[in-house]
Write a structure and sequence with these properties.
There is one protein chain. The chain is of the alpha+beta class. The protein folds into 4 domains: 3-221, Heat Shock Protein 90, CATH 3.30.565; 228-388, Ribosomal Protein S5, domain 2; 410-541 and 582-616, Rossmann fold (3-Layer(aba) Sandwich), CATH 3.40.50.670; 544-576. Helices cover 36% and strands 20% of the residues. The protein has an 8-stranded mixed β-sheet with strand order 5-4-3-6-2-1-7-8. A 5-stranded mixed β-sheet has the order 9-10-13-11-12, with helices on both faces. The protein has a 5-stranded mixed β-sheet with strand order 15-14-16-17-21, sandwiched between helices. 40% of the residues are buried.
Amino acid sequence: MSDIDLDLEYGANQIQVLEGLEAVRKRPGMYIGSTGSRGLHHLVYEIVDNSIDEALAGFCTKIIVEILPENIIKVRDNGRGIPVGIHPKLGIPAVTVVFTVLHAGGKFGGSGYKVSGGLHGVGASVVNALASWLQVRVFDSKKVYEQKFEKGNIVSDLVSYDSCDSRGTEILFKFDESIFKDVKDYDFQILATRLREQAFLNAGLEIDLIDKRHEESKIEVFKYDGGVVSFVDFLRNRRALDAIHDDIINFSAENKDIFVYFEAALQFNSSYNELILSFVNNIHTNDGGTHEDGFKSALTRVVNNYAREFKILKDDDKNFIGDDVREGLCAVINIRMKEAQFEGQTKSKLGNTEVKSFVDKVVYEKLKLYFEENPNSAKAILDKISASAKAREAAHKARELVRKKNAMESASLPGKLADCQSKNPEETEIYIVEGDSAGGSAKGGRDRRFQAILPLWGKMLNVEKAQLAKVYVNEKLMPIITALGCGIGNDLDISKLRYHKIIIMADADVDGSHIRTLLLTFFFRFAKKIVENGYVYIARPPLYRITKSKQHFYAFSDEERDKILSGIEGSSEIQRYKGLGEMDSEQLWETTMNPETRTMLKVSVEDAALADEVFSTLMGEKVEPRREFIEKNAKYVANLDI
C-alpha cells in the first residue's frame, strides 16, 4: 500500500470510549457470533486483528501466535505497543481502557488508525470479558508494562519493570470454560486457515503459528511477498485446478479523494466453478458488496466489448452474461479504506456506493489493457467463456424440456415421492433416503402430516465434474430438484422451497458416506442458498441396538456402545446395523425420525473458501490431491459423528 497509513500519532489521546462492558458476559453471542467453536476461535482473531491493524498502519512486520498447554493463547507483535499513558477523560492508563471498556480503541474516530479491520470492532475488551484470565504486556523500547485481568475485571494495576530495547504488545489469555461449555480446545487448522489468509492480504507481513500443546511443537510460518497474487496461486494449487493462461492478472490503484486503495488478482481455470474472495480492511465480505459489484460489472463489460471488437461475438449474437464470464474464475479483491460502511452486524457486505464506480473504472481499464497486450491469454479466456455460454444455452433447453415433460404428466412431483399432508414449508421436512428398502421403512414409520420421503437408488452424478445441462437430465438428481420445487442455479427461488428441513438419510458405511458427499456437493454447487439458510441436515441413524431383558438401547458410536454396556449387568444382545433397511419402521421412527428423540447434524458453511477447496479436492478430476487429503485426514475418521 502507499504512504496513506504512515506517520500517525498513537497515544492515550487517540483512545476513544463509546460505551461500557457490562453486557458481554450475559450475551456473548451478540459479540462473537456463538459460544461454540466459531466463537472460541474468534477470540484469537480479535486479538490478532489488533496486531494486523498495526501492520496496516506500517508499524508491525511480525506476529507470533502460540497455542500453549491448557489452550492458553499468546499473541505477540512488534508494533508500537498499546499506549500506556493516562487517558485524558477517564484518568486511567489507556491500555486499561482498551481491555475494560467496550468500543474503546484507536479505530473509533481517533487518529490512531486511518484504516482498520476487526469483525465487530469490539476487540480486546470482549476477549477480556470472555476469558477466565488475561495478561497484557507492552514493550515501549524502554520499559515493560504489565496488567492482569480476570473475567474482564482488573486484578492488578498497570506496573512497569525491567528495561527493554524492543517494541510491541504481548497478550496471554485463557478462555472461560463456563461460557464456552461445549468446546474443548482450539483447532490448529482453523487458526492456520485464517492466519494464512491475513498474511496473503498483507504482503510481507510474517505470521507464525506455533502449537505447544504436545511433546513436539507444530509450527507454520505464513509470509507472502506476492500478496493477493500469491493468494490466487495458492487457491488454484490447493484445488488442483489447471489454469487456462499462465500468468495471474493483477493490478492495483488508489483514490485519495475517497481514501480507497484497491488491489485484485485473478486467473481463469478449467473448472466450472467460480471463486471470488473479497475483503475490506482484512474483513472477509462473504456477501460481497459494492466492491464486488464493480469488479463483476467491469469484467463482463470488458469481455463483451473485446469479443465484439474481435468478432468473437457476431452482430446477431447475444452478449455473454456474468455467469458465462465468471465460470472457472478464481479472484481475490482487496480494499483498504477509511470510512467503510457495512450492511449488517457481521460486516459481511460493503455498502459504500462510491467504491463501485471506482473499482469498475479501474478493472475495466486494466483488463482492457491486459487483453490488448496478451492476445493469446485473451483468446484462451474468451474460448472458455464461449464454451460456458453454449453450455448455459444447453442447460436452458434441458430445463425447458423437463418443464414441458412435467406439464404433460398427470403429476409434476416424482413418482417415488411420498409427500406429506402439510403444505407449510416452515413445518415440513423431506427425508432423502438411500435405497428402496430403507425408503419403505421410512414411509411406514413417518408422521404423514409433515414428513415426506424420497427414496433414491444407486449413486448419483458427481456435479463437481459436470455442467448444469447434465444436472437437468440426470435421473438421480431430477427427482430431488422437482420435489424441492425451488429450482437450481440462477433459477433458484428460495421462497418456493417446499420443505424447510431437507434431511439426508444414508447408511453409516462407506457407500452411505459417498452418497452424502455427492448430495452435499450438489447442494453446495447448485443450491448454495438452501445450505446458507440452514435447511440441510444429516440424519444420524444408530450403529448398534443393545437389548437387555426386553429393554432396547441405541448407540451411535463404538464409544457410546461401550458406555451403555458398562452400565448393564449380565449378558446382553448386540445388533450391529449394516444399513437403514435392517431397521423396521418403528425402530427407524424411534431412533432417527421422531423429532422428540432424534439427533441430526445441521449443515452450515462458515468458511466458503475452505468448503470450496474441500469439494474441489475430494470431488475434482485429479487423484493425487484427493489421496493426499485422505492420507492426511484418515486418522480423524474414527472420530466422525455420522
